[in-house]
Amino acid sequence: MKRYDVTVIGSGMGGSACALVLKRLGYKVLLIERGTHPRFALGESGTPALSRKMRFISRTYDIPELEEMATYDAIKASEDGFLCGPKEMFQYFVHQKGQTQPGQFGAFPEVIVQTPEVDAQYNRAASDKHLMEVAVKYGVEYSDETSVEDIEFHDDRVDIACKKHDKSYVVVSDFVVDATGFNSVIGKKKNLKLQGEAVGTPLKSRCIFSHFKDIGSFDEVINNCPSKQPDLSPVPRSRATQHHCFDGGWLWFIPFDNGVTSIGVNLDVDLYPMNDKEGEAEFWEIIDQYPMISNMLKGRETLMPFIKTNRLQFINKELAGDRWAMLPASAYALDAWFSTGLAATFMSVHRLVDILHNRMLPKKQFDKKLLLDYELSIRKEYFHVAKMVDGMYKSFKHFDIFKNYCFFCFMGTESYLEKGGAGKAVDLNHLLLSAGDEDFVQKFEAIYAKIVEYSKYETVSDEDVEALAKFIREDMKPFNFRKYGSPEMHSVHPRRPLNMVEYDEPRERRHGT
């Protein structure tokens, strides 16, 4: 019977990347996929943290194809490019019910932060298929249309009962990586999933989403405004992830090069409780209250049925164990705000591969104790990011609060990158959105408490608004690289390249023969 060093279950971008890097390190790796490629997946938007981590993994483990996937420009320049879209900005606009013009209710309620380089919007059907094919090209064994019927953990091995078409068989492996997503095979096997109040986070959101064809242009909405508001955007908003926010929720607009835009409305469950409405009907019921959004979407073709979720958030009681570990999409679910999913995944791939290669596989030691920091890293990130995103939902009610608070996500990422976080594997001081920086977390927690308080008010004072902006300018100065909170920026922050120091270090070829 054939035995593998590592079996990875699930061939999304994270699973395929994990299998690929392990293969480059010289291990015998099997990648199992329940379905076939191409297939739909969520988590479509890249970020600076993702592009830098992908580039670091690419150069460290000598996988040039990963660097070719790291940014939009790299994908377009590659001979093996695939369907994607440009992400050159994070753009936010806070709407009020019935609003037909951008400046209708006073100050222009927009915030723009340009990315250091042009990140990618990933059409996951295309990107997942491409990365799986790269893994196979490098020698990863791949089995699709293969369901995992059961997993049995033993002291000396893992037995994975598989079924492909009508054939049942057992795969033997030293270690298993669960990259199966929401319906984690190990989470189900061990009854680990926590949902509802047991999750332990204040963030409570749900989602309704689809893909639209040839939507209207928000740049035209801005430029046709009778008030002649100067357009300060450094690039067209069609090259951004657009966030259309309102009290109780927000929409993502993620554009691809073929004229398709991924669109989803995310809702605060406390303000928009679950109900029995059909997803499409509820989507339009909400969107019709915001004419500037509705006018861009009405009459446009949708390319897939509207998908309506329950509360998104869950986490498993255990994220790793003897001879197994989960990648983030299997370990938990958060919310689409700030597109943390793919970045968290590739950060965890780097951590897990480093532990397997340096501590587990050479010595054939697979005790959970060797994975405690891996698990703790993911947990710290989960609860930190969940609280930060919860604050976003609570800030939508007051634009003057939102326009300052929203910068915490950027300061957290930019500080992580400036301090060399993209080059770190398992390091509890370098985590997603600076979740491992005690000074940053302490300052964030103080402001989060204020945001929760402000969300209970119908109005907030000018003094409170200025105090928040001053806190960001002064108290957050060690983390504030782009004058966030400064009035002269007019809530528009153009590109500032981040340092690339970790890529100037000698590049060791770490993989085996």
Description:
- This protein is α/β, with parallel strands linked by helices and 513 residues long.
- 34% of the residues lie in helices and 22% in strands.
- The chain has helices spanning 13-24, 48-60, 64-67, 72-77, 124-137, 185-190, 218-223, 279-287, 291-297, 328-331, 340-360, 372-395, 399-405, 407-418, 438-454, 462-475, and strands at residues 3-9, 29-32, 84-94, 110-122, 141-143, 146-153, 158-164, 167-178, 193-194, 205-213, 240-246, 249-255, 260-268, 307-308, 314-316, 320-321, 324-326, 332-333, 492-493.
- Strands 1, 2, 5, 6, 7, 8, 16 and 17 form an 8-stranded mixed beta sheet that branches. An 8-stranded mixed beta sheet has the order 14-10-13-12-11-3-4-19.
- Helix 1 runs parallel beside helix 5 and helix 2 runs parallel beside helix 11.
- The two termini are 23 Å apart.
- Mean pLDDT is 94; it is low at 500-513.
